[in-house]
Structure formats: structure tokens, C-alpha cells
Amino acid sequence: MQFDFFPSKSLTFYLGRLFIARILAVLVMLVLVLMMLDLLAKSGDILAVAGNGQGELLTYAGLRIPQLIQRFVPYAVLLATIITLVALNQNSEVIAMKAAGLSAHQVLAPLLLTAGIVSVASFAFNERIVTRATATLKAWEAAEFGPVPEAGASTIRANVYLTDGTNVLTATNVTGIGENTVMSDVTWYERRPGGMISQRSRAEKATYANPGWKLENVEQFDVGRADTKTLESLTVGEGLTLDQIELETVDPDAEDFFTLSRSIDAYEAAGRRTSELRAKWWHKISGPLSAFLMPLLGAVAAFGLARSGQLFLRAIIGMALGFAYFVVDNAALAMGSFGGYPPFLAAWGPFLLFLLIGETVLVRTEE
């Protein structure tokens, strides 16, 4: 029995069922509370748009909930670990399992297996649901919760910032691909070599003019003369090619794993910096896999005598280890985004570090 990772099928199913029920309960509680707070903050902006009502609030909730699930699945696994192990300890079930000859790792094995299944499910959910919801929600937010240009979510890019020499072109939304690309709510800034803006041109729409981008119904403001005039059309940004538009509008949060991989290859072929994209590409795997780490970090709550008075302290230590991981993970990802860490280290360094910390704490205290 000592050398069998899952010595009892009944015990494995019992602990796994107990654990998954608590994960779902904690996750539902977190998502409902956070969604309610989010709606309180955003409902005013949504309802301020003429024609928006309860349907739009439900649409926002439907797009936001997948993002909340993605972010808080590891937290839910951590809290469920603490709740499950504290209850097992208080009811002397851990003592019974250890008295039967199970090691600390064997006690945790069903929880680790369940957390691994949750990690795989979370990865699939992120790739199929969250990326599409994120793309759609960002486009809707960029339109200030008004009508979004008719296009599939995968072809909408929000808040685009492009440079053509010293000049700058911004757009609220970019839809379509290739020569059918259309920009919405466009602003073109003509700047002198020193960086001073000489003219600002605004238009509701811009289409590809080959070369350049054709702005329609333009409102142009001349800074030097403090004069405003209206033009039927204006072609700007002749140095902005379709390939550059595609590269500049890559959003790693709105692209799935394989699409983002192709975007990174395109960046590298163009000689562009890929550290931020590569770090987030790796994090698409390490992020969901962090749920697998949580039972190990919270395991300190499972052991020690419940009557010793240290059970609460052990639960706090397990919770502190889990939340410390999230802090270090976010910091490392931020460092990787601007090149402070190599992308692989930024995404996987915190996971491997806390895997060793969790194993060390478990072995030193229980094995």
C-alpha cells in the first residue's frame, strides 16, 4: 500500500467527489459576488446608451462571467483545498487514513488528480469560450457599449494605436481582414519632427486605399491656425500596410493558443519584439495548470492534530502560500512583458518555485 499512489478506489472517489463539490461551490460563490459588484460599477455606463436595457445587462454578464471563471478557478481550488482538508482533519479522517498506512502524498493524491482534471478543463474552457468572449467584450467596451460593427468576434480588434513615422493613427475598432479591413472612430495626428501635433483629423470610418487609409466625412483641426474644417475624404498613413495592421492588432487575451502561436511567428518574421506575446503564450498553459498546484500549497492544513490549537494557523499558512503564488506569478508575468525575464521563466518560474516550496513544506512536516 505504501508504494501505491491510489491505494483505495473507494477513498479516491470519495475524496475526489468531496473536493470537486467544494470547488464548484466556492467558484459559484466568487463569480456571483464579483459579477454583482462588476454590474454595479458598469450598469450605469451600459444603460446610459440609448436603447440599452436589461438585455444588454444580461449580455454583459454573459461575456464577463467566462473571464471571472478563468481568473478565479485557481483561487476556488485553493479555498476548496483549505475547506476540504480542515474538515477532514477536524473529523479525524486524516488520522484514520494515516493510521491505515497512507502517506501524506497518498492522502493528497485524489485531490491532485481532481485538480489536474480541473486544469485541463480550464485550459479547454479558456481556449474555446474565454478568448471569444474577451474579443467581443473589448470591442463592445471600445464602442462605449453602443452598436458594434457587424463582424465576427475573431475579426474585431479594439483600441488600436499605429505609428507612421512621426504621425499616429488610432481607431476604436478594426474589423475585417486583408483589403476588407475597416477602422471605426478614427483619429489621425500629424506631428512635426519634434513631436508637436500640427493637425488632428477625425472620422467615423477609414478603409484601405492601397496605399494609405481613406477617411470619410473628416473633421480636421489645424493647431497652428486654431481652425476647424470639414472634408469629404482624406487619405492618410500611406506607410501603414495591411501586414502592419495585422501585427499591431494582435491581442493575446483574445486569441487562442494556436492562433497566438501563428501571430508570434509573424512577429518574428517581421523582426519585431515578441517577449510579451511569448510570455503570455506560455502562460496560457501555466495559468490553468496553477490549479494543480493549489492542493499541494494548501496541504499544510490537512495535517497536525486538530486539538493542538494550530489547525487555524495551518489553514492561514496554506492560504498565504497560495496567495503568495498569485502575487509572484503576476509580478513575473509583468517582468516578462517588458523583457525583464525571459518569456519561459516569466510564465513557468513561479509555478516551478512554488512546486518545490510546497513539496519541501510537505516533506519536512509530514514525510
UniProtKB/TrEMBL annotation:
BP GO terms, sorted: lipopolysaccharide transport; transmembrane transport
InterPro entries xrefs: LptG (IPR030923), LptG/LptF_permease (IPR005495)
Gene Ontology CC annotations of this record: ATP-binding cassette (ABC) transporter complex
Keyword Transmembrane: yes
Record bears the keyword Transmembrane: yes
Spans traversing the lipid bilayer: 20-41, 72-88, 108-125, 285-305, 311-328, 340-358
Membrane topology: Multi-pass membrane protein
Compartment(s) where it occurs, according to its Swiss-Prot or TrEMBL record: Cell membrane
Coiled-coil annotated residue ranges, if any: none
Top-rank lineage group of the source organism: Bacteria
Record keywords, A-Z: Cell membrane, Membrane, Transmembrane, Transmembrane helix
Record-given protein name: Putative Permease
Organism of origin: Altererythrobacter epoxidivorans
